[in-house]
Protein backbone atom coordinates (compact mmCIF):
# COMPACT_ATOMS: atom_id res chain seq x y z
CA UNK A 1 0.00 0.00 0.00
CA UNK A 2 0.95 3.66 -0.11
CA UNK A 3 3.24 4.93 2.58
CA UNK A 4 5.05 8.02 3.67
CA UNK A 5 8.10 7.44 5.79
CA UNK A 6 10.80 9.36 7.57
CA UNK A 7 14.49 8.63 7.52
CA UNK A 8 15.40 9.88 11.00
CA UNK A 9 13.24 9.23 14.02
CA UNK A 10 15.11 11.77 16.20
CA UNK A 11 17.08 14.85 15.25
CA UNK A 12 19.04 16.77 17.88
CA UNK A 13 20.33 20.26 17.09
CA UNK A 14 21.69 23.26 18.88
CA UNK A 15 19.71 26.46 19.13
CA UNK A 16 20.50 28.67 16.16
CA UNK A 17 21.42 25.81 13.85
CA UNK A 18 19.46 25.00 10.74
CA UNK A 19 17.43 21.77 10.87
CA UNK A 20 16.56 19.50 8.01
CA UNK A 21 13.88 16.84 8.37
CA UNK A 22 13.52 14.36 5.57
CA UNK A 23 10.66 12.31 4.24
CA UNK A 24 10.31 9.71 1.50
CA UNK A 25 7.05 8.89 -0.21
CA UNK A 26 6.12 5.95 -2.37
CA UNK A 27 3.35 7.21 -4.61
CA UNK A 28 4.80 8.95 -7.66
CA UNK A 29 1.33 10.26 -8.52
CA UNK A 30 1.05 12.30 -5.33
CA UNK A 31 0.32 15.94 -6.11
CA UNK A 32 0.14 17.55 -2.69
CA UNK A 33 2.42 17.37 0.33
CA UNK A 34 2.16 18.90 3.75
CA UNK A 35 4.19 19.24 6.94
CA UNK A 36 2.75 19.28 10.43
CA UNK A 37 4.30 20.02 13.81
CA UNK A 38 2.99 18.29 16.90
CA UNK A 39 3.98 19.53 20.32
CA UNK A 40 3.57 17.33 23.35
CA UNK A 41 -0.07 17.07 24.38
CA UNK A 42 -1.38 18.96 21.37
CA UNK A 43 -2.85 18.19 17.99
CA UNK A 44 -0.82 18.44 14.79
CA UNK A 45 -0.38 22.02 13.61
CA UNK A 46 -0.12 22.94 9.91
CA UNK A 47 3.30 24.33 8.97
CA UNK A 48 3.58 24.48 5.21
CA UNK A 49 2.41 22.69 2.11
CA UNK A 50 3.60 22.28 -1.46
CA UNK A 51 2.06 21.07 -4.68
CA UNK A 52 3.78 18.77 -7.12
CA UNK A 53 4.17 21.53 -9.72
CA UNK A 54 6.64 23.24 -7.39
CA UNK A 55 10.13 22.29 -6.18
CA UNK A 56 10.42 24.71 -3.32
CA UNK A 57 8.21 26.80 -1.13
CA UNK A 58 9.20 29.15 1.65
CA UNK A 59 7.40 30.27 4.75
CA UNK A 60 8.51 32.05 7.85
CA UNK A 61 11.82 30.36 8.82
CA UNK A 62 10.70 27.20 7.04
CA UNK A 63 11.32 25.91 3.55
CA UNK A 64 9.93 22.77 1.98
CA UNK A 65 11.79 21.12 -0.87
CA UNK A 66 10.24 18.54 -3.15
CA UNK A 67 12.29 16.21 -5.34
CA UNK A 68 9.86 14.24 -7.44
CA UNK A 69 12.60 12.33 -9.21
CA UNK A 70 13.58 10.50 -6.04
CA UNK A 71 10.24 10.98 -4.28
CA UNK A 72 11.74 12.91 -1.42
CA UNK A 73 10.45 15.78 0.65
CA UNK A 74 12.34 17.84 3.20
CA UNK A 75 11.54 20.53 5.72
CA UNK A 76 14.23 23.05 6.53
CA UNK A 77 13.95 25.16 9.65
CA UNK A 78 16.27 28.13 9.83
CA UNK A 79 17.78 29.34 13.10
CA UNK A 80 16.11 26.58 15.09
CA UNK A 81 14.72 27.66 18.43
CA UNK A 82 13.81 25.65 21.56
CA UNK A 83 10.17 26.28 20.72
CA UNK A 84 10.67 24.26 17.53
CA UNK A 85 11.14 21.11 19.59
CA UNK A 86 8.31 18.82 18.55
CA UNK A 87 7.47 15.85 16.36
CA UNK A 88 7.25 16.70 12.69
CA UNK A 89 5.07 14.75 10.28
CA UNK A 90 5.02 14.78 6.54
CA UNK A 91 1.88 13.71 4.71
CA UNK A 92 0.70 13.42 1.17
CA UNK A 93 -2.70 13.51 -0.42
CA UNK A 94 -4.37 10.20 -1.14
CA UNK A 95 -7.87 9.87 -2.49
CA UNK A 96 -9.74 13.08 -3.16
CA UNK A 97 -8.90 14.91 0.04
CA UNK A 98 -7.52 12.44 2.53
CA UNK A 99 -3.94 12.53 3.78
CA UNK A 100 -1.53 9.71 4.58
CA UNK A 101 0.95 10.55 7.33
CA UNK A 102 4.47 9.39 7.93
CA UNK A 103 5.50 8.12 11.35
CA UNK A 104 7.15 11.37 12.43
CA UNK A 105 10.55 12.74 13.39
CA UNK A 106 11.23 14.16 16.80
CA UNK A 107 13.24 17.38 16.74
CA UNK A 108 15.11 18.20 19.94
CA UNK A 109 16.62 21.67 20.22
CA UNK A 110 19.20 22.31 22.90
CA UNK A 111 19.79 25.85 24.19
CA UNK B 1 -5.80 27.49 18.49
CA UNK B 2 -6.96 25.75 15.33
CA UNK B 3 -10.64 26.45 15.90
CA UNK B 4 -11.45 22.74 16.07
CA UNK B 5 -12.79 21.60 19.43
CA UNK B 6 -12.96 18.10 20.85
CA UNK B 7 -14.55 16.70 23.97
CA UNK B 8 -13.79 15.12 26.29
CA UNK B 9 -10.08 15.75 26.70
CA UNK B 10 -9.53 12.52 28.60
CA UNK B 11 -11.61 9.37 28.86
CA UNK B 12 -10.94 6.31 30.97
CA UNK B 13 -13.15 3.28 30.55
CA UNK B 14 -13.14 -0.48 30.85
CA UNK B 15 -12.88 -3.17 28.21
CA UNK B 16 -16.16 -4.01 26.56
CA UNK B 17 -17.60 -0.55 27.08
CA UNK B 18 -18.77 2.00 24.51
CA UNK B 19 -17.75 5.66 24.31
CA UNK B 20 -18.58 8.65 22.14
CA UNK B 21 -16.08 11.30 21.17
CA UNK B 22 -17.28 14.67 19.95
CA UNK B 23 -15.80 17.14 17.50
CA UNK B 24 -16.82 20.60 16.34
CA UNK B 25 -15.08 21.74 13.14
CA UNK B 26 -13.82 25.23 12.37
CA UNK B 27 -16.53 27.65 11.42
CA UNK B 28 -17.38 27.16 7.77
CA UNK B 29 -15.54 23.86 7.32
CA UNK B 30 -17.69 21.14 5.82
CA UNK B 31 -15.27 18.22 6.04
CA UNK B 32 -14.43 16.36 9.23
CA UNK B 33 -11.76 13.69 9.53
CA UNK B 34 -11.06 11.30 12.39
CA UNK B 35 -7.61 9.92 13.18
CA UNK B 36 -6.22 7.50 15.71
CA UNK B 37 -2.72 8.10 17.04
CA UNK B 38 -0.90 5.39 18.95
CA UNK B 39 2.78 5.04 19.72
CA UNK B 40 3.41 2.19 17.34
CA UNK B 41 1.10 3.19 14.47
CA UNK B 42 1.48 6.93 14.15
CA UNK B 43 -1.47 8.92 12.79
CA UNK B 44 -3.96 6.59 11.17
CA UNK B 45 -6.84 7.97 9.16
CA UNK B 46 -10.15 6.47 10.22
CA UNK B 47 -12.97 8.17 8.36
CA UNK B 48 -14.06 11.39 6.65
CA UNK B 49 -17.44 13.09 6.50
CA UNK B 50 -18.38 15.91 4.19
CA UNK B 51 -21.52 17.92 4.82
CA UNK B 52 -23.17 15.05 6.63
CA UNK B 53 -22.20 12.29 4.23
CA UNK B 54 -19.48 9.70 4.60
CA UNK B 55 -16.79 10.57 2.03
CA UNK B 56 -13.84 8.26 2.68
CA UNK B 57 -12.90 5.38 4.93
CA UNK B 58 -9.50 4.43 6.18
CA UNK B 59 -8.43 1.86 8.72
CA UNK B 60 -11.59 2.00 10.77
CA UNK B 61 -12.65 -1.08 12.66
CA UNK B 62 -16.19 -2.37 12.37
CA UNK B 63 -16.60 -1.70 16.11
CA UNK B 64 -16.12 2.00 15.36
CA UNK B 65 -18.60 4.26 13.66
CA UNK B 66 -19.03 7.97 13.09
CA UNK B 67 -21.57 10.48 11.93
CA UNK B 68 -21.79 14.14 11.09
CA UNK B 69 -24.85 16.09 12.12
CA UNK B 70 -26.68 18.93 10.32
CA UNK B 71 -24.82 21.50 12.43
CA UNK B 72 -21.60 19.84 11.11
CA UNK B 73 -20.35 18.56 14.43
CA UNK B 74 -19.24 14.95 14.36
CA UNK B 75 -19.19 12.05 16.77
CA UNK B 76 -16.98 8.99 16.77
CA UNK B 77 -18.48 5.98 18.50
CA UNK B 78 -16.17 3.24 19.78
CA UNK B 79 -17.79 0.06 21.06
CA UNK B 80 -16.70 -3.26 22.58
CA UNK B 81 -13.53 -1.51 23.59
CA UNK B 82 -10.28 -3.43 23.85
CA UNK B 83 -7.02 -2.55 25.53
CA UNK B 84 -5.48 -1.90 22.12
CA UNK B 85 -7.96 0.88 21.45
CA UNK B 86 -6.16 3.06 23.97
CA UNK B 87 -4.84 5.96 21.93
CA UNK B 88 -5.22 9.61 21.09
CA UNK B 89 -8.13 10.34 18.80
CA UNK B 90 -7.96 13.47 16.72
CA UNK B 91 -10.53 15.23 14.70
CA UNK B 92 -9.55 17.55 11.85
CA UNK B 93 -11.56 19.76 9.55
CA UNK B 94 -11.00 21.38 6.20
CA UNK B 95 -12.78 23.77 3.90
CA UNK B 96 -15.10 22.54 1.18
CA UNK B 97 -13.40 19.66 -0.51
CA UNK B 98 -11.48 20.69 -3.59
CA UNK B 99 -12.06 24.42 -3.29
CA UNK B 100 -8.99 26.03 -4.87
CA UNK B 101 -7.18 22.78 -4.21
CA UNK B 102 -7.29 23.44 -0.49
CA UNK B 103 -6.37 20.23 1.24
CA UNK B 104 -4.83 21.35 4.49
CA UNK B 105 -6.54 19.96 7.54
CA UNK B 106 -6.76 21.68 10.90
CA UNK B 107 -6.57 19.45 13.94
CA UNK B 108 -8.28 19.62 17.28
CA UNK B 109 -6.49 19.02 20.60
CA UNK B 110 -7.49 15.36 20.70
CA UNK B 111 -9.17 12.99 23.13
CA UNK B 112 -6.95 10.64 25.07
CA UNK B 113 -8.74 7.32 25.52
CA UNK B 114 -7.48 4.85 28.08
CA UNK B 115 -9.08 1.41 28.17
CA UNK B 116 -8.37 -0.57 31.34
Task: Note down, in words, how this protein is organized.
The complex is a heterodimer of chains A (111) and B (116). Chain A is built from no helices and eleven strands. Chain A is mostly beta strands and 111 residues long. In chain A, strands 2, 4, 5, 9, 10 and 11 form a six-stranded mixed beta sheet that branches. Chain A has a five-stranded antiparallel beta sheet with strand order 1-3-8-7-6, with no helix packed on it. Chain A is globular, with a radius of gyration of 13 Å. The N and C termini of chain A lie far apart (41 Å). Chain B contains no helices and eleven strands. In chain B, strands 2, 4, 5, 6, 9, 10 and 11 form a seven-stranded mixed beta sheet that branches. A four-stranded antiparallel beta sheet of chain B has the order 1-3-8-7, with no helix packed on it. Chain B is globular, with a radius of gyration of 14 Å. Classes of the chains: A mainly beta (111), B mainly beta (116).
Amino acid sequence: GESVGLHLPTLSVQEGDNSIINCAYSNSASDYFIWYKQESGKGPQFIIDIRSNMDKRQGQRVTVLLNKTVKHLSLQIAATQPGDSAVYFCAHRTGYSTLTFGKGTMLLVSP
Amino acid sequence: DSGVTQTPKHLITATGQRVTLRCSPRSGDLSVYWYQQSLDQGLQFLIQYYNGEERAKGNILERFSAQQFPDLHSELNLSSLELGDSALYFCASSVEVGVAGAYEQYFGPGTRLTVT
